Amino acid sequence: MPFFKNLSAYDERSARLAGIGLMVLSIFMFSFGDAMGKFLVGTYSVGQLLFLRGGAALLLLSPMIWRQRDLFLHLERPRLQLIRVTLSTLEVAAFFIATVYLPLADVITYYLAGPIFVTAMSAIFLREKVGWRRWTAILIGFCGVVIALRPSAQTVSLPALIALGGSLSFATLMLITRSLRKTPDIVMASSQFIGTFLLGAVMSAFHWVPPTPGSLVIFAAAGLISVTALFCVNRSLKLAPASVVVPYQYSMIVWAVIFGFVVFGDVPSMATIGGAAIIIGAGFYIYLRERDLGRPSPDVNPPA
Hints:
Elements: H1 2-10, H2 12-40, H3 46-67, H4 78-101, H5 104-111, H6 114-125, H7 132-149, H8 158-178, H9 185-204, H10 213-239, H11 242-245, H12 252-264, H13 270-292
Helix pairs in contact: 1-2, 2-10, 2-12, 3-9, 3-10, 4-8, 4-9, 5-8, 5-12, 5-13, 6-7, 6-8, 6-13, 7-13
């Protein structure tokens, strides 16, 4: 990526524009990959998706893993690394299990609440100081989640609870990642795909549908898209300040609605749209407060 390096070195405005462009592109690719995953789990098991998608991603990453293999020998806080990989694996599995039964926009809405959950858990478990403004935003964000969940004896379903549980796992994962900032990017990325690959291998052993050649291409494409999108996010954050590019990650809900409607015929309910709007507004406010206070703000990176 020498072109982008030159931009960041010689033309700050162009670098920022390139960073925004890469972030928007990465969110589109993540959303497209999620839609592909939802399409595949209509025929194949979630375990097969995790196994073949993770295998394709690791195959693509293997040259970098080999060149930087020494980085895997001296990891900071190994136990915390293992917990992080476990949470990452569970939240990705929960995401795709939920998409079997729920519209894509509904599942994405729950995951967009991740930064709100992170801020709340930071105050409760890490004793970080959270002022009344952010607590208000947290409560408003939770109201958005409740609206999207549409709780009642007839409407609260197991898939919705699985998606919400995945969102909480995702938030805990982000919280732990804050404590592992010294871990190299290649270790962070590849370990997540290793986790999903291994879980997929176990799950698919109990339910395996022989994939067609066309489906294998889609499985491989899903892994390729995930890795490419991840690198686009990383490059975006190096080209432009996080305060410039992170808000564009909320565009994921737009793509989720578009793909859900075009590919699956899903029409989001007013509750989902209203809840998503409230969650995005609260999350964006929390992000701005974290930035103004000079503290690391919770990211909203999609599931790998």
